[in-house]
Amino acid sequence: MPESDPQKTPYAKLAFTNPYNLSLFLGGLAVSALALNPIAALVVLGAEGLWMLHAPESKSLRKLLWDPRYDQIRRALAQRNRQERMRALDPAEQRRVQSLMARQEEIDRLAAQNPSFTGDLLRGELQKTRKLVDAFLEMALTCARYERYLETVDLNELDRERQRYTARAASKNTTDPERELAKKNAAVIDKRMEKLRDIRNYLGVARGQLDLIENSFQLIADQIVTMQSPAELSGQLDDLLDGVESIRQTAVDTEKILAEATTT
Description:
Blueprint (H helix, E strand, L loop, with lengths): L10 H6 L2 H16 L3 H17 L4 H28 L4 H23 L5 H33 L3 H16 L5 H48 L6 H34 L1
Helix pairs in contact: 2-3, 5-6, 5-8, 6-8, 6-9, 7-8, 8-9
C-alpha cells in the first residue's frame, strides 16, 4: 500500500467501509425493504450520498478516523510483507530484523510521549523510521544472497587455475594457438576475481551500514525523550537514509557484477 498521503490515501473507501456507516446504510435499506417503503430507501440513499460527499474531505474525520485507520491497515500489511520476506534469512539475521522492528516501535512510542513533537511533524519523521526498517531488511536479504553465491566459489581454486593458465601462456613448449587461449582464459579468471572482490567490498560496506542503523536506532531511543525539536530526530534519520540510498545505488552496480559472474 502507498504511504499515508492526501493524494493516495483512499478516504472515500475508508468512509464507506466504516463499520458505523455500513451498519446504518445496510440497516436502513433492510428496514425499508421489510416495510416495503421506497421513500425510506430514498432517504437512506440520500443520507449516504451526503455522507460520501462530505465525510472523505473532512479534515477532522481524516485526523480522527481515516488517517489512523489507514495507518493501521498499512502497518499490518507492511508487517505481513516483512515476515514473508524474512523467511529467506537465517535465524540470526531474522532476530536482528525483529530487534530493529521492536526498537522502531519503541522510538514511535517515546516520540509520541514527547510534548515537543506535534502530530503532523511526528508522523513525517516516523515514516522515515519505517523506511529505514524496510531498507535494513532489503540490505540484509541482499547480503545473504551475495554471501550464498560467494560460498559457491572457491577463490583458492580459481587462483590456482589462473596461475596454471598464466604458466601455460609463458611456457616455451606451448604452441601459439594454445598460448592465445591460455592468455584469454587467464584474463577471464582475472576479471572474475576482480568482480568477486567488488562483491566482497559491497558486503563490507552494506554490513557496516546495517550496524550503523542498529546503533543509531539505539541512540535515538536513548535521546528521543529529551529532544527539544523534531529537527534533532530528522537530522539523524536523514543521514541514515542518505547512507541507505548510497548503498542502494551501489547494489545496482553489484547486481550487474553478480549477473556477469554467474554467466561467465
